[in-house]
Amino acid sequence: MAQLRSSSDATLLERSRDAVEHFAAAYPARFAIVVFAALNLVFAVLLATPWATAGDGTTGAVDAFFQAVSVVCVTGLTVVDMATHWSPFGNAVVMIGVEVGGIGVLTLASILGMTVARRLGLRQRLMAASDSNPSRVRRGVVQEQQAIRLGEVGSLLRIVALSVLAFEAVLVVLLLPRLLLEGKDFLTALYEATYWSIMAFTNSGFVPTVEGLEPFATDPWFLGVLMLGVFVGSLGFPVYFVILRHLGKPRQWSLHVKLTITVSLLLFLLGGLAFLVLEWGNADSWGTDDFGQQLLHAFFLSAMARSGGFAVDDLGLLHNSSLLVTDMLMFVGGGSASTAGGIKVTTLAILFLAAIAEARGRKSMEAFGRRIPSDVLRLAVSVTLWSATIVAGVTIVLLEITGAPLSFVLFDVISAFATVGLSTGFTHAGLEDPAKIILALTMFVGRIGSVTLAAALAASQRTQLFTRPEERPIVG
């Protein structure tokens, strides 16, 4: 009897495993969303336990859910005081959550599988590839002219694991002496340096102390290290992979790498100059400080607006023009397959290249001596349109619920969708529970990406065996 029961249990286990594998193969986008949603719920349960909260009591269900989503989606928005609310166990859950969310759930699962089994099967390669390239979330043939080919996924996973450890270790080494100079004991300084480095590289923006960045508000070294961590984290793992393979040979870098680095640097410089000009003379921000401090604060905000989430100044006191520039930078975000959010810098690049090609009367988009196929433009337009629609819809709903000013609501909605974490003060502990839930769902949708969401809602990709008559509508 025991042997029969064991055989029955094994059969049930095998059937369950086969059902999961079939679902993952048939609907990769839906599988990714289900896994990511389950992970968010697991962390919500952990943060709601008595062990996660400092002192007596527990965190409410809505607040625990909001913070879990903000952690796993590496956003940085908070409705509790992150420095005092959590116990050591709660802080450990937060740091593990942002690491898992920053790396990517399917990527992390593939890394663990490769570590245990010493090999990477085709199914695991496809799962990891869907994390590194949104084009793979649809079932069907995928063109391989991209930054990471399917055969290189195993090497990419090794780069992901090593780069996370290496970059965060470098940030800890750079931050630790500065914290020791503040008079902190070694263990406290080491913990805070580790916390800051993890939050910088994952573009999360949570802070480990009550005073936050206030003691370092005029410190170019500390703020500069955070900017470096955020910028590197926002480039994306495919960029590290290509650069390390062709170190010192920029001509061999892929088009994706060149576009990501070029547009990221351009947005950082233009954003910093815009903030410097727009906040000039604003006594409520940094506009009346000495010129060196104005430069530091302007470019720090430019770096953080791309997905970093750290803030030195009260953003609610900025000019509305500065808030609008920040909205634009947050909406764009960082690089694909990175710890940053937004529509991604390559999406913005494709849209501008298409506009330039149209203005010059060219049939195709070109950049760095390469021609970009039209299906990439369709994807870029889809990402931008879906993202703008989601942001607009959520903003309208929250305006009706809260009655807060449009500039503040729009700012925090974009911050949530682009997983940035900056806030004008709209997101706070006293926010209505329905508004918290809506913002949490916005963070979730923003992190999984509009392409993945659209692919999950749509049917599997089909080949159309006919073409309809062509007719051109008037545009413009």
Descriptors:
two-stranded antiparallel ribbon; 476 residues; monoatomic cation transmembrane transporter activity; Potassium transporter Trk
Structural features, described:
The protein is 64% helix and 1% strand. With 476 residues, it is mostly helical. The protein has one domain (30-138, 148-455). It has a two-stranded antiparallel sheet with strand order 1-2. Strand 1 (365-367) and strand 2 form a beta hairpin. It is globular and about 70 Å long. Mean pLDDT is 84; it is low at 109-132 and 136-147.
Radius of gyration: 23 Å
Strand coverage percent: under 5%
Major sheet: size, sense and barrel closure?
2 strands, antiparallel
Which structural class fits the helix and strand makeup?
Answer: mainly alpha
Q: Whole-Å distance between the termini?
A: 76 Å
Give the overall average pLDDT. Answer: 84
Beta strands, count: 2
Counted up, domains total 1
Shape assignment: globular
What is the helical fraction, as a range of percent? 55-70%
Order of helices and strands: HHHHHHHHHHHHHHEEHHHH
Number of continuous helical runs = 18
Taking strands numbered 1, 2, ... along the chain, how are they ordered across the largest sheet? Answer: 1-2
Low-confidence stretches: 109-132, 136-147
